[in-house]
Amino acid sequence: MVGNERWASRLFLATGMVLLLAAFSGCGAGYRSRNINGVKTVTYVDENGNARDIYRVEKDGRTTIYDENDPMARRLVAQQAAAAKMEQARNERLDRIKAAPKRASRDPIYVVLFETELGENLAKAEKPEGAVYKAFRKEFEHDRICKLVNPRKMKGNAGREIRAFLENPLSPESTVADVSVTTRAFLEEQYGISKKKGKPARMVALVFEATITSHFLPRTFTVRESGHILNNPEVTRKFAAKVRRIIVEEVGPTIPKDRSV
Q1: pLDDT (tens digit per residue) in 30-72
Q2: N or C, which end of the chain has less CB nearby within 10 Å?
Q3: What are the two backbone dihedrals, phi and then psi, of residue 116, each rounded to the nearest 5 degrees?
Q4: What domain range includes position 216?
Q5: Number of compact structural domains in the chain
Q6: Measured between alpha carbons, how far is residue 61 from residues 55, 56, 86, 113 in Å?
Q7: Residue 201: what pLDDT?
Q8: b vs e for 118-145, b when ≥16 Cβ sit within 10 Å of the residue's Cβ?
């Protein structure tokens, strides 16, 4: 009797699992996406398990639509059309920027310096908080060409803000920038030859890295400077000078006189 009960219990559990799987299969209708070697294919599977391909996107972006009336296919086509339109507008704007008269060499360049990202060890050692960023920013505060934009108020470089720029010259509290600068600082052990003893030596160095991005042409520059942690004021000055040179000599000549171009 006990054996029969165990057998019945197992049969009940097995039957329940089958029914549960069947229920999930019945609810499995929908879209499936697979990506093989960079080729994406979207398929629709109905309640009976029948599958039909909706579209296929190759590595290079070429697209094959198998069912033009399918909602997913229509959505993809709309997304691609919007992306193409944006790319065309972007290219047309770049052409206008390249052809436009450029700012004079002594005209201001409006720069946003975002807060410096600190490495873990430097963050622990920094006193007071924010000292690294403030020291770097200070190097630009009275610059006659690089005028600072408050990063907390910066929104972008288009439309209404550009028109506001043309009507009123920018102040350090402006919302428009020509260039953005992101910086990172961290401590690093470096090895070399001691100038005093002429022997191999190691030191803890302060390292700065920056990414400088033009808001007009798709150009990005990177800068790095390092030196002994005890010489941090000098390291900061050298780093700021490198950043400024890129802004003034590399980005500056490409900035149009009319920012609304």
Answers
A1: 998 899 989 999 999 988 888 999 899 998 889 999 988 999 9
A2: N
A3: -75, 130
A4: 106-254
A5: 2
A6: 12, 9, 16, 36
A7: 74
A8: beeebeeeeeeeeebbebbbebbeebeb
Amino acid letter for position 175: T
Q: What is the pLDDT of residue 171?
A: 37
Distance separating alpha carbons of residues 255 and 261, to the nearest angstrom: 10
6 falls within a domain: no
- Region 158-162: mean pLDDT is 42
How many CB atoms within 10 Å of residue 187?
19
Pairwise CA distance, residues 178 & 111, whole Å: 6
Is the alpha carbon torsion for 226, 228, 229, 232 positive or negative? negative
The residue type at 254: T
* Cα–Cα distances in angstroms (integers) from residue 146 to residues 197, 243, 245, in the given order: 42, 11, 10
Count of CA atoms in the C-beta half-sphere (13 A) of 247? 31
Output the DSSP codes for 89-144.
HHHHHHHHHHHSPBPPTTS-EEEEEPPPEE-HHHHHH-SSTTHHHHHHHHTTTT-S
Report which secondary-structure segment, H or E, holds 163: helix 160-167
Q: Decide the pairing of beta strands 109-113 and 146-149.
A: parallel
Mean of pLDDT values over 232-255 = 95
